[in-house]
Amino acid sequence: MVATQTPGPVNADPAELAKFSALAHRWWDPTSEFRPLHEINPLRLAHIEKLAGGLAGKRVLDVGCGGGILAEAMAARGAQVIGIDLAEKPLQVATLHKIETGSSVEYRLVAAEALAEEMPGAFDVVTCMEMLEHVPEPASIVRAVAKLAKPGGHVFFSTINRNPKSFLFAIVGAEYVLNLLPRGTHEYAKFITPSELAAFCRASGLEPNDLTGMTYNPLTKVYALGRDVDVNYLMACRV
C-alpha cells in the first residue's frame, strides 16, 4: 500500500502525471523509455554520495521519485529513504519492486509542500531529480525542499537548461532523432536556467555550492558528468 496525502491543491500538472502513469509498468525495464534513468543513475548516485559525505545512516528524501530507481539505490547505500510522488501508478510500481528486492524505501503519495508542513527539517539529504521541469511552479518545490532539509543538510536538484542548444539536444535529439525518450516528454518553455534555479534556491535559504553538467555522447552512448551545463545539469546546495 502507498500512503496518501490529505486532500488539497497541489503543484502538479495532471497531463504530466498522466504521461508518466501511462508508462509506469515499464519503469524498471532498463531497455524501455526509462533506459536513460537507469544509465545515469550510477552517475547521480556517486555524485550525491560524494558531496553529501556518504549516505549510510542518513535520513534521505527523494522528491518526485517515480518508480524508485534513485530511491532504491540510495537505500542500498544504507540511507533511510522516503520517496514521494503525486503519480500513483509509478508509486505502485515502486512499491511492488521494493517487495521484490527487499528494499527499505518508504513510498508516499504526497506533495512536497504538504510534507514540508508535516516534517520540517527532518532530512539530512533531499534529492529532486528530473522533476522541476515538469511542475507548474518549480520555485514552490524548491521552497518545500529547503524546508524539509535539516540545517546544514544537503540538497540536490537536476533539471534542463533553457537555450537553443538544450532545445536541439533535449527535445529534437533525445525525443525525435535518437528516440532516447518518448516524444512530448519535455516542454521547452518549462526548462530552467542555472541562474534561475540558483535564484530560487537563495530565496529559499539554500546556498548553491556545486554546479555540474551531464552530457551524452550519441556515438559511444555514454553519459558523463563534467563542466558542460548547456543541457542537463545538477545543482547541489547546503541549508
From TrEMBL:
Binding positions for S-adenosyl-L-methionine per the UniProt entry: 44, 64, 85, 129
Protein keywords: Methyltransferase, S-adenosyl-L-methionine, Transferase, Ubiquinone, Ubiquinone biosynthesis
Taxonomy, superkingdom: Bacteria
Record-linked SUPFAM superfamilies: S-adenosyl-L-methionine-dependent methyltransferases
UniProt pathway: Cofactor biosynthesis; ubiquinone biosynthesis
Function: O-methyltransferase that catalyzes the 2 O-methylation steps in the ubiquinone biosynthetic pathway.
Family listed: Belongs to the methyltransferase superfamily. UbiG/COQ3 family.
Organism expressing this protein natively: Usitatibacter rugosus
Protein name: Ubiquinone biosynthesis O-methyltransferase
GO molecular function: 2-polyprenyl-6-hydroxyphenol methylase activity; 3-demethylubiquinol 3-O-methyltransferase activity; polyprenyldihydroxybenzoate methyltransferase activity
Reaction catalyzed: a 3-(all-trans-polyprenyl)benzene-1,2-diol + S-adenosyl-L-methionine = a 2-methoxy-6-(all-trans-polyprenyl)phenol + S-adenosyl-L-homocysteine + H(+); a 3-demethylubiquinol + S-adenosyl-L-methionine = a ubiquinol + S-adenosyl-L-homocysteine + H(+)
One Gene Ontology biological process: methylation
This enzyme's EC code(s): 2.1.1.222, 2.1.1.64
